Amino acid sequence: MDPTPGSTVRTDRLVREFRTGAERLTAVDEVSLEIAGGSVVALTGPSGSGKSTLLHLIGAIERADRGSLTVDDVEVTALRRGALARYRQRVGFVFQRYHLLPALTVLDNVIAPVLPLPGRADHAARARELLAAVGLEGRERALPAQLSGGQQQRVAIARALMGRPRLLLADEPTGNLDSATGAQILDLLLDLRERHGMTILLATHERAIAARCDRLIRLGDGRLVEDIDLTDGEDPAETFDRASRLRL
Ligand SMILES: Nc1ncnc2c1ncn2[C@@H]1O[C@H](COP(=O)(O)OP(=O)(O)O)[C@@H](O)[C@H]1O
Ligand SMILES: [Mg+2]
């Protein structure tokens, strides 16, 4: 196991607004959170509640309008362009629709994010290792269309790990998969958390997925409306039972 437990994340009254014409919509509304390094957190809430926007803010894909984001000891919301780009490279992202490049092989998709950087042979070796770690050894030369949805998501996860992230953000990573395949993707994420030492924040609508996380955070209209510790030091079966009764 990697000695680093994954990034700690702290948001303080984080706000993101969108303006369309005269309308102003607060997608993320004063969200304050503290996420412990190495935890796996489910982000839930109805469609439009701000899950994706919050993930984008934490990954610095979008900028907050107000409030602060601190990851480990770095105040991300205060970073200038160059430092912000470096921060972004160290965050892993996984999306519901995989976002693989259809014309590239599986191996090249995994290498793609580091392609501008020198050291192609090293990258290829690392990409092969990661593909083996996600259970895709032997499929390096396949094209995405030749893989199942679950396999494509495994490629996307391997790609997200290329930058050795200590923080992985997953936006409904099992949303396009049947429940058995989705459970396997979560198994993989939990296993990678152990082996690589990562904090994982994942948006999900699925109770079976959320129930296996360490913590559940629910958003409603951009606000934090519920925050439940699912570990709590109690019997896991009891935790699961309680979680299975959660409204999602
Ligand atoms: N780029 C954008 N421009 C305008 N409104 C947006 C944009 N992105 C998201 N929104 C709005 O912000 C709110 C939160 O969206 P989102 O974060 O995608 O929610 P969720 O992921 O929970 O479905 C929604 O009302 C959505 O329509
Ligand atoms: Mg979303």
Question: Could you characterize the architecture of this molecule?
Answer:
- The protein is α/β, with parallel strands linked by helices and 248 residues long.
- It contains eight helices and ten strands.
- The strands form two sheets. It has a six-stranded mixed sheet, with helices on both faces. The protein has a four-stranded antiparallel sheet with strand order 2-1-4-5.
- α6 links the parallel β7 and β8.
- α4 packs across α5 and α5 packs parallel to α6.
- The protein is globular, with a radius of gyration of 18 Å.
- The mean pLDDT is 91.
- Magnesium ion binds next to α1.
CATH class call of the largest domain: Alpha Beta
**Proportion in helices:** 25-40%
Tell me the strand percentage band.
Answer: 25-35%
Which ligands does the model contain, each kind named once? Answer: adenosine-5'-diphosphate, magnesium ion
What's the name of the CATH homologous superfamily of the largest domain? P-loop containing nucleotide triphosphate hydrolases
Number of strands: 10
CATH architecture of the largest domain: 3-Layer(aba) Sandwich
Order of helices and strands: EEEHEEHEHHHEHEHEEH
With strands numbered from the N-terminus, the spatial order across the biggest sheet is: 6-7-8-3-9-10
Count of DSSP-assigned helices: 8
The pLDDT mean sits at: 91
Largest sheet: 6 strands, mixed
Are there runs of 5+ residues with pLDDT below 50, and where?
Answer: none
Number of domains: 2
Secondary structure category: alpha/beta
